[in-house]
Amino acid sequence: MMAGYGTRRLPITKALEKHMLPVGNRPVVDYKIEECIKAGITEFILVVGEEFDQVKKYYSQNTLLEEYLESKGKLDELEQIRAITKKARFHYVVQDQYQPYGTSTPVWLCRHLIKPDEKFLVLNADDFTFREDGGSDLADMIQAAEEAGAQSALLAQTVDWDKVSRYGILTVEERDGRQWCKSIQEQPKQEEAASNLANPGSYYFDAKIFKAVGHNVEQQFDREHRLTEAMNDYVAEGNSLLVVPTKGEFLDTGNTESWLYANNRVLGSQ
Question: For residues 225 and 218, what is the distance between their CA atoms, to the nearest angstrom?
Fold first, then answer.
């Protein structure tokens, strides 16, 4: 999901799409793409805004640049940019300004591209989980869901109690030695939070989620159409949602401080 305007990072996001903010020498979205590739994902549907073309340029061939690099004998750089376009197959879906605002909408817009028996990931494009061991929390989430026989799953991160109001917070129940999501509270007050398990926004769904997001998108209200509300309806209808703890460190670029920290964390490990 990458159709948001990135208002928390203005004014830079007036000219630079928020998912293209650099972490090291790569856009932040590329770290999430690499996480997915480690999980065996080879096909991506990128939901973009009407005028967003920077991510398309990044994952498309640039013939003039390739010819220049080849003519100058910069073969290492040439291979580096060619490898970007060969990573996976990319499709683009436009979320225009007239569609309902919120995280349910991009999922709903992709419903015709998912087969009834397929499972798929739904992810934000401006954060990622950093692991120094080279692993992928997304791969672990998929494996855990399959082993548990869960219809769907989400990653969860333990946060300090004084920070729970910044996140979606999970209400969970224990069954068979595993945690299952009962509901998600959006940014509760500390004294009202059901736990300190935060939802960083990485999901593994079956196609039954489309019924819940469709109902959410079709409602009329003057606020965000939240995917987490659709997920609460999904669980209430009897669908299973496994909670999988993250092993890595969650990094995001939503504000200047967290973006600087993400850069220092990634570059400091190299």
Answer: 9
Q: Which residues pair with 125 in a beta bridge?
A: none
Token representation of residue 122 = 């739904």
Rounded to whole angstroms, how far apart are CA atoms 184 and 198?
9
In the chain, the number of structural domains is 1
DSSP state of 111: G
E strands present in 162-211: 168-175, 178-186, 197-199, 202-206
Contact 147, 176 (CB under 8 A): no
Tens of pLDDT, residue by residue over 183-207, are 999 999 999 999 999 999 999 999 9
User: Which two three-digit tokens encode residue 238?
Assistant: 């009897």
Look up the CATH number of the domain holding residue 52. Answer: 3.90.550.10
Please name the residue that has the structure tokens 């997915």: 36
Report CA-CA distances (Å) from 84 to 44, 116, 132, 164, 180: 14, 30, 22, 37, 37
Angle CA(122)–CA(241)–CA(88) in degrees, nearest 5? Answer: 25
Task: Please give the residue range of the domain that contains residue 236.
Answer: 7-268
pLDDT digits (tens, 9 = 90+) for 96-136: 988 989 999 999 999 999 999 999 999 999 999 999 899 99
Strand, helix or coil for residue 123: strand
Q: What is the pTM of this model?
A: 0.93
The answer to whether residue 66 is domain-embedded is yes
- H-helix or E-strand spanning residue 264: helix 256-268
In a domain, 2, yes or no: no
**Is residue 167 in a domain?**
yes
